[in-house]
Amino acid sequence: xxxxxxxxxxxxxxxxxxxxxxxxxxxxxxxxxxxxxxxxxxxxxxxxxxxxxxxxxxxxxxxxxxxxxxxxxxxxxxxxxxxxxxxxxxxxxxxxxxxxxxxxxxxxxxxxxxxxxxxxxxxxxxxxxxxxxxxxxxxxxxxxxxxxxxxxxxxxxxxxxxxxxxxxxxxxxxxxxxxxxxxxxxxxxxxxxxxxxxxxxxxxxxxxxxxxxxxxxxxxxxxxxxxxxxxxxxxxxxxxxxxxxxxxxxxxxxxxxxxxxxxxxxxxxxxxxxxxxxxxxxxxxxxxxxxxxxxxxxxxxxxxxxxxxxxxxxxxxxxxxxxxxxxxxxxxxxxxxxxxxxxxxxxxxxxxxxxxxxxxxxxxxxxxxxxx
Amino acid sequence: xxxxxxxxxxxxxxxxxxxxxxxxxxxxxxxxxxxxxxxxxxxxxxxxxxxxxxxxxxxxxxxxxxxxxxxxxxxxxxxxxxxxxxxx
Lengths: 372, 88
Description:
The complex is a heterodimer of chains A (372) and B (88). With 372 residues, chain A is α/β, with parallel strands linked by helices. In chain A, helix 11 (217-232) links the parallel strand 8 and strand 9. Chain A contains 17 helices and 11 strands. Chain A starts with a helix and ends with a helix. Chain A has 3 domains: 3-55 and 168-240, HypD, alpha/beta domain 1 (Rossmann fold); 59-164 and 250-294, 3-Layer(aba) Sandwich (Rossmann fold), CATH 3.40.50; 310-369, no CATH class. In chain A, the strands form 3 sheets. Chain A has a 5-stranded parallel sheet with strand order 2-1-7-8-9, sandwiched between helices. A 4-stranded parallel sheet of chain A has the order 4-3-5-6, sandwiched between helices. Chain B has a single domain (5-80), classed as SH3 type barrels, CATH 2.30.30. Helix content of chain B is 23%, strand content 36%. The two termini of chain B are 18 Å apart. The interface between A and B is large, with 48 and 37 residues.
């Protein structure tokens, strides 16, 4: 442990002791969740500080009905669906994209929205649909790609929009009030786009401290120290301890693109239901790129596995090990819920780093070991 | 999925840049960071540079990623952007 880590831990313990009661903080970012586990930070925390994982994994919050819509599209004649890798294995009602691909459907793994557009240029006589998931870090890439398609007249390109916005979800969690939360460790790279000031409503409306932090262990501990210090002083403020990378106003160019191409819309989150203004839909001039409209899709209902507690997990209501399916019916190689599918899912992180006795590394997909 | 990784801009051409990611040359869009020029460091996410950063911060992040995710990370991170081999 570095001297700085030791000093930060000592400070955390001192502050936690001063506060004296149980404190619950939420990290709202899958990258934070993975870093906390990978670096063994939980073991260093004071006993009265509980760190909950929030709805910070884009795969985990995508509603089953949206997965089903992607599967329905991929099953159509001549359609090519382009998706980020993590979405491949998420189970829908009728299996996953991965299973459909094994049956011969044209599903292409991409790492950028631009790759989907490139496929559309290569196959001008086939419809190419991007399964557009992700928070504000990823949504500008979709917006820029749609503008490029519009400019270059790539009319066989469209997107199934499943983007989600972080702050409305944080507000919804507080408004529901089911889980007592004393503050938020706010995501680093989402904040590059939206800016630290985006969390002001959380601080001002709900008097909860918000601290923007990076994902390295010392940066996370610095964020936690800042949160505990505020709580010990009875304050609720917005702090940015990642100011080398995150500005107050965010990336103005990216925000302008989002505003130009999309409008905020109510969105359905997996098992959380509809959260007002927490998603994006196409602004009028770009509606023809909407896959739902173009293909006349009907978005159905969800039919999640009755025993699956992913919905509770992403709200911090239960820990993965409390789910009856965890590490039993639901494992990374045979996931039931999305939190076990994505390498950034809370259940997956627990499984990988907090694995129950009797399981082996072979239970984890090979791609995870390489840090995916 | 929201992880962005640092790269150094080697070439710029219109809205595109070629960046060095620990020895891998990658083509990314700089439409979100029009200010980025040759020699600048950028954070890259899903094939797009999303912000410019200082060299010291970029190197520290590289160090962390290498230590934490292993040497393979940057060749794996090849996946994070349009790679020369294209997507599978």
